[in-house]
Amino acid sequence: MRSFAPLVCCVLVLVAMGPYTATGQATSAATTPSSAEPSIHAVYPDPIAGGDEGEFVVLSVPDGTDIGQYAVTDGDGTVGIPNTSARGRVVLSTAPNRTRELTDWPVVGFDGHLALANGGERIRLQRGNRTVDAVRYTEAVEGELGIVNGSVIRWRPLGATDRPVVRAAGGEVRAFTLPDTPAAPIRPIRNAGERVYLAGYTLSSDRVADALIAAQRRGATVRILLEGEPVGSRTDREAATLDRLTEAGVSVRVLTGPRARYRYHHAKYAIADERAVVLTENWKPAGTGGNSSRGWGVVTSQPRIIDGLNRTFQSDIGWQDSKPWGEYRQGRQFERAGPATGSYPTEFRAESVSVQRTDLLITPDNAQGRLVETIDDADDSIDVIQPTVGDWNSPLLRALRRAASRGVEVRLLLSDAWYVREENEQTAQRFREWADRNDAPLTAKVADPDGRYEKIHAKGAVVDDKRVVVGSLNWNEAAATSNREVVLVLHGGDAADYFGAVFDADWDGGGFDMPVGALVALLGLLVVAGLAARRVSFEA
User: Fold this and answer.
1) What is the pLDDT of residues 97-148, one digit of tens each?
2) SS3 helix, strand, coil % of the chain, rounded to 5?
3) CA–CA separation, 20 vs 3, rounded Å?
4) Per-residue confidence at 95, pLDDT binned at 50, 70, 90?
5) Is 245:225 a contact under the CB 8 Å cutoff?
6) Which residues pair with 136 in a beta bridge?
7) pLDDT for 169-210, tens place per residue?
8) What's the pLDDT tens digit per position in 347-382?
9) Which of 172, 308, 389, 438 is the most exposed place for a label (fewest CB within 10 A)?
10) Is residue 67 classed exposed, middle or buried when 0-12, 13-18 and 19+ CB atoms within 10 A define those classes?
11) Which residue in 342, 261, 246 sits closest to 294, CA to CA?
12) Number of H helices, E strands in the chain
């Protein structure tokens, strides 16, 4: 990273965008512009390109603004903005052909000179001699867009989305759990005739691959988007599965490379015609195959949810970090691994349940803040199931402790998988000790599958017996702020009853869980009852 970047291609992006939750990674010193005038929304000083080719400034432009009356300056150079009829997202660049490689927004060429220093800069938006708005950043992050919100800037990879929460009116959804009902997440794919868009972390299930290939042969458009660099490397079994899909004409792409916008593409969902599946499990035998993990899932046909998922999928698969599988796999070696082969009983069948409303949340755009609000709004109870949880001071865990502090009964159930068991035992113990010190109604423990599943992989919550959280998000800061994750919040007692029953069974499956004092009292009663029985027997 250089301390000063001479401009080779300076871009100005005019964009009308909503509020953004920022973090204190840089500072901004801005005036307060009139609502009828444009303002500086973001800066892009340090592209991943030689000579910082493609740096730009983002303006938020109200409707009806004559943008030709404004200019942008860094104190050394000033660029006049040509008037244009375009509104919304508009890109102005000294090298429009190069800029079109960086964005799908309309690009307008202009003449001028401006340079943005990577080590810090003050950018001003002017109208004549009057400064309309000004922003100061202290240190650019290579390849990332600095979005301004009040006095702070949050750096995010160029191309990352900034989507609002999508809300759908009530109706019915199909709730299911794994490993109990492995047919539920695949049935919509098997019935699709027009399109199947599948997003995942990994995909190695032959059953899923067969359903996708069959949909392709029926004439459906089938597209798959996966993580390019999963933890622990990709297996040879998955590589063979993706090879087979590609050979059958299915489009398979992975997110990878220096322009990757997300730490991991960890979302797990599929759009099949006018239905969608959102779940906690990977598309592999251990997950959707029902051969190992406890998972939660939902099938919905709510149009707004379908549209929101489709927009997310198209944004993610259409950016520069999306690479064809055939190109990605060249010269790579894959780990040898066999599939999960466990067999488990069906205790919970899929059920259609009514919902009053469904919210679609995604990370890093909006999910963590909305989930914290959901926890903060709880009045009576919160039941959380997670493979493991993150830092003690992460926003979601702090929210759980706040809830318990005001009297909300909180239960946290964690996985006993061998690779997280010790960590989870320590986490559960820490929560219990905190609850004892603060006299708070919170308890946590590691699950005992008791032969009903192998390990917990579900990521969800039941709040006040009237809201359900289900999706791919592990409750840690890195996942919430760096990964692509998809979560549904189901509002309604029916959905809460279904997933609440699953949670209760898994909680109780861990054996007898009773405070020591209550246990001693119960043993005393049993002893008294036993002595009384012996006396009756003797007297008889």
Assistant:
1) 776 777 666 776 766 777 789 999 898 999 999 999 999 998 898 888 888 8
2) 25, 30, 45
3) 28
4) low
5) no
6) 122
7) 999 999 999 999 999 999 999 999 999 999 999 999 999 999
8) 999 999 999 999 999 999 999 999 999 999 999 999
9) 438
10) buried
11) 342
12) 12, 28
Would you list the DSSP string of 277-331? EEESS-BSTTTTTSSSEEEEEEEE--HHHHHHHHHHHHHHHTSTTEEEHHHHHTT
Tokens 């008791």 found at: 450
538: its two tokens: 């003797």
CB 348 within 8 A of CB 502: yes
Alpha helices in 389-515 (DSSP H): 395-405, 421-438, 477-482, 493-508
Q: Which two tokens stand for residue 393?
A: 């001071």
**pLDDT tens profile 29-88:** 445 555 578 888 888 888 877 777 777 888 887 888 888 888 888 888 888 888 777 666
Q: For the ranges 83-97, 151-165, 210-224, which has the lowest average pLDDT?
A: 83-97
**CA–CA dist 37, 34 (Å, integer):** 5
Residues 91/99, Cβ–Cβ less than 8 Å? yes
Beta 71-73 vs 78-80: how paired, if at all?
antiparallel
**Residue percentage of the chain with pLDDT more than 70:** 84
Angle CA(66)–CA(71)–CA(73) in degrees, nearest 5? 160
Is the separation of the CB atoms in 225 and 305 below 8 Å?
no
DSSP 3-state assignment of 48?
A: coil
All residues at 6 or more sequence positions from 402 whose CB lies less than 8 Å from its CB, including other chains: 375, 376
Residues 6+ apart with CB under 8 A from 437: none
- Asked if 490 and 299 count as a contact pair (C-beta separation under 8 A), the reply is no
Bridge partners for 80 per DSSP: 71
Contacts of 106 (CB under 8 A, 6+ apart): 86, 89, 90, 91
Question: How far are the Cα atoms of 47, 194, 424, 461, 462 from residue 382, in angstroms, in the given order?
Answer: 44, 40, 19, 7, 6
Given phi > 0 = left and psi -120 to 50 = alpha, else beta, which region is 478?
alpha
What residues have CB less than 8 Å from 517, skipping those under 6 apart?
A: none
Pairing mode of beta strands 460-463, 381-386: antiparallel
Which stretches within 301-448 are classed as H helix?
Answer: 303-317, 325-329, 367-376, 395-405, 421-438
Nearest Cα to Cα of residue 430 among 419, 420, 415, 445: 445
224: exposed, middle or buried (Cβ count in 10 Å: 0-12, 13-18, 19+): buried
Q: How does DSSP classify residue 106?
A: -
97, containing H or E segment: helix 96-99
Distance separating alpha carbons of residues 320 and 100, to the nearest angstrom: 12
- What's the one-letter identity of residue 173? V
Residue 159's SS3 state is coil
Give tens-digit pLDDT for 406-416: 999 999 999 99
What was the pLDDT predicted at 3? 33
User: Which two structure tokens, joined as six digits, stand for 460?
Assistant: 């969800």
